[in-house]
Amino acid sequence: FSQIESCDDSIELTKEQVKAALTSLFIIHKQTRTIESRKRRRNKSIDQSLANQNKKQKQIYNNIILSNITQTETIVLATSGLNNQQMKQIKKFVLLFNCRLLLLDNKTTFNHTITHLITDEIDHNDSLICTLTKNVVFAIAQHCFILSYRWIIECLQQNTIVNEEQYEIEGDNMFSTKHNGPRRSRLSKRPLLPLNHFIMIKGGSRHFLDFTNSELGDLAWLAGGIYIEQNRFPNTVFPRQCFLLIEDEDVRNKNMFHRCIDKGLKFLRSEWLIRSIVEYRMASIVQYHCDPFDTIDRSE
Hints:
Elements: E1 2-6, E2 9-13, H1 15-66, E3 76-80, H2 84-97, E4 100-101, E5 116-119, E6 129-130, H3 134-141, E7 145-148, H4 150-158, E8 171-172, H5 181-188, E9 197-201, H6 213-222, E10 226-228, E11 241-245, H7 254-262, E12 266-268, H8 271-279
Parallel strand pairs: 3-4, 3-5, 5-7, 6-8, 9-10, 9-11, 11-12
Antiparallel strand pairs: 1-2
């Protein structure tokens, strides 16, 4: 027999009673531990499920940021001349305001769905002067907002989309620091070149800003001109202006050059078309005459 003291009284138990009591306590303890284990496993399963869901959601956001998205959205961003730190802020903007970012490289043509091009800003003193790049030229031709990177910072600080106009680029580092071409293009949304302007592009050399022949052809179409890929201009019943964009070093046949000029064909360097688009007004053709043989009087 065993004795258990309680309140100064002794209670005598048989061995069977003691064994039964201990067995009962062991089962209760085991059941309690089993219930707690189930709770821990259930909580762990829930945590893993949430983690997997967050992981999938993060992958979706990564796809949104890093993929080339072509679908139409309220705001579709592209960039020009930004550094890595600035690109991180761009991605924060995309996530916060549910926008789209189209990453452009040397093999990617500027996309017509882009609404805002975010550029660097020279001197960083609210100059609104950007580095002129191919993307800037294409964005102006497609009437997009061309905005300083400061617009992104201001939107993030205020946690809302602020008005773009006070951050719109006014000039560039190539032609003029204050020509307001981007705003002129965005507000007009009209073709720059008249319909009777036929443009042919020739030459194996790189053109201004390293534009290729095909890229200049795209610009000519976007500007409203008629781009001719064949080797001759078509006959028309209305008066026409025919331009051949070519660099000086690509003109080699002097006799052919003179015959074409006599027929009214104008040989111009590609910089003429690019400057016209950037400032969104027709540049004077006199200073951009292509004449490696020095036969044209440019003072006229």
